[in-house]
Amino acid sequence: MNTLLLREGADRLTVELHRPDVRNAIDDEMVSELHGVCSQLERDPRILILTGADAGGKGVFAGGADIRTLRERRRDDALQGINSTLFSRIARLPMPVIAAVDGYALGGGAELAYAADIRVASTRAVFGNPESALGIMAAAGATWRLLELVGEPLAKEILFTGRRLTADEALRVNLVASVHEPEDLLAAADAIADRICEQDPLAVRLTKRVLAAPRSAHPLVDDLAQAILFESEAKTERMTRFLDRSKETS
Ligand code: COA
């Protein structure tokens, strides 16, 4: 891979966006390599941790879609939904996706972070959608994911005015789960992944699928997913372990 650095683990894959010279801007090659990562995780479900390569000690998640590429794109490119398709595929990955955001997450970089299930930030994280300043709109998730994450009034302010959120502001509006010193950020993401790994993986996968179902599908999808889990060996084992815990200690 030319634009990503991968760290493979048995239960997780850590992917670093790696184009530090252009602040990890997302170009066609990175899009295609991220699709490769998705195919791998769809075949072999693991947690995905997304992070960005440090740029000269400043930390950056991603400065957005590559503006050099964007300037050349025309109507038919936009209609392909290049970034929106990728980010939706990432959002639909079987196991949870965690974005570890250090420094700027702007434009498409922010929208990639919005597509994650959980975001953690460093103290120097900055979220923003400056698309309208470039004469385009944020079309890869901000108009629906950001809206759901922070609510309509703030999403509109961010999208209409280019307002950026600091890490503390992002924490206050629950856009991020927690804020850490830059050197502790990946460990914080790993600690969340560790906690997810203590759960039953099928229960986590089905919960993620059911959470993404439209409101009209509830509670039917919940009942069906639960029915699958009620038949699993893991459920019997985990519940028996709980019920027998006092026998083991006595
Ligand atoms: N696309 C293409 N190149 C980008 C880029 C992007 N989204 N973001 C940064 N770069 C490039 C710059 O052009 C510059 O290249 P150069 O060294 O050839 O001049 C290099 O990355 C460093 O950028 P610089 O602005 O000097 O770094 P910085 O650390 O001072 O600021 C940002 C970082 C992210 C705040 C700033 O680069 C920025 O505002 N980027 C654009 C953000 C944006 O509008 N994104 C929305 C795209 S839809």
Model description:
The chain is α/β, with parallel strands linked by helices and 250 residues long. The chain folds into 2 domains: 4-197, 2-enoyl-CoA Hydratase, Chain A, domain 1; 201-249, no CATH class. The chain is built from 13 helices and 10 strands. The protein has helices spanning 28-43, 67-72, 75-80, 82-91, 108-115, 142-150, 152-161, 167-172, 185-198, 201-211, 220-230, 233-243, 245-249, and strands at residues 4-8, 12-17, 47-52, 60-62, 97-101, 104-106, 118-122, 126-128, 165-166, 178-180. A hairpin with a 3-residue loop joins strand 1 and strand 2. The longest helix is centred in the N-terminal third of the chain and has 16 residues, at 28-43.
Percentage of residues in strands:
15-25%
- The chain-level mean pLDDT equals 97
Q: Please summarize the sheet with the most strands.
A: 6 strands, mixed
The arrangement of helices and strands along the chain is EEHEEHHHEEHEEHHEHEHHHHH
Shape: globular
**Would you tell me which CATH topology of the largest domain applies?**
2-enoyl-CoA Hydratase, Chain A, domain 1
Q: Structural class of the secondary elements? A: alpha/beta
Number of strands: 10
Q: Examine the secondary-structure arrangement and name the CATH architecture of the largest domain.
A: Alpha-Beta Complex
Heteromolecules bound: coenzyme A
Radius of gyration: 19 Å
> What are the low-pLDDT stretches, counting only 5+ consecutive residues below 50?
none
CATH hierarchy, class of the largest domain: Alpha Beta
Number of helices: 13
Q: How many domains is the backbone divided into?
A: 2
Cα distance spanning the termini:
54 Å
Kindly report the spatial arrangement of strands forming the biggest sheet: 1-2-3-5-7-10
